Amino acid sequence: MLVAAAVCPCPPLLVPEIAGGAAAEMDAARAACYDAIGVLAAARPDQLHVIGPAEQAGRGTHPQGARGSFAGFGVPLEVSLGKGEPARRDLPPSLAVGAWLLDRTDWTSCPVEGLGVGEPLTRTRCQEAGGELAASADRVALLVMGDGSNCRTLKAPGYFDERAAAFDAEAARALGAADTAALLALDEELAYDLGAAGRSSWQTLAGAAQGSGLAGRLLYDEAPYGVGYIVASWS
User: Fold this and answer.
1) Which candidate among 101, 129, 133, 190 keeps its CA 20 to 30 Å from the CA of 143?
2) pLDDT of residue 110
3) Distance CA 170, CA 148 (A)
4) Sign of CA dihedral 205, 206, 212, 217
5) How far, in Å, CA of 63 to CA of 40, rounded?
6) How far apart are CA 21 and CA 15, in angstroms?
7) pLDDT reported for residue 158
8) pLDDT confidence of residue 177
9) Does residue 95 contact residue 87 with C-beta atoms inside 8 Å?
């Protein structure tokens, strides 16, 4: 059963070594992520699943101890998904950021496993996958990685799209309210058009949380680089 969840954005810029001189611009988002993970630990879970968007090579499960690297972002920094033997394949960037957050918050509460989900995954399959995660242990926690739209400003990675702000506002409202029905109702095609990589992760969370009675709290909702970054805590 799902007992807690933390929703965090997954830009590598959360890692100060990657952000460099601009690291302070993400201080508030980083602090909100730490607070959300603290709620996970307080829930005393038996199993933590870190889920996040992934390209084809990174989809599927990643065992505890799997390694991730930020070398592709110009920083020779490696992270591990908890303690354990290295896996044969690397963590996708979203799960590497999740592993970094867990390391920074000294996660030791329970075993950890990663799940890379495809951005095109249908809401139905997301819902099913979430239900499977929730049933994986008596007390399950999720660290849900994913960004909102990347079209909030003219300088955003996806340029400007006038639909982006409304999409992110509804996603933030639903995540802050733990509104599973609203999360499952997010439009898949619109999310893809807006580059909202977190849609499949959020709908997986919705599937896991159905019937759990969890309450949500919105901790952060900004678009510092024209990309929607949302942090929420469910407990």
Assistant:
1) 190
2) 96
3) 10
4) positive
5) 19
6) 12
7) 94
8) 98
9) no
pLDDT of residue 168: 98
* CB-count exposure of residue 147 (10 Å: 0-12, 13-18, 19+): buried
Residues of the chain predicted below pLDDT 50:
none
Widest pairwise Cα distance in the chain: 46
* pLDDT at residue 23, as a whole number: 81
| CA–CA distance, 232 with 135 (Å, rounded to integer) | 22
pLDDT given at position 22: 78
Distances (CA, A) of 32 to 17, 28, 73, 101, 124: 19, 6, 23, 11, 30
Q: What is the pLDDT of residue 157?
A: 94
Give CA separation, 131 vs 47, 95, 114, in Å. Answer: 14, 20, 16
DSSP state of 17: H
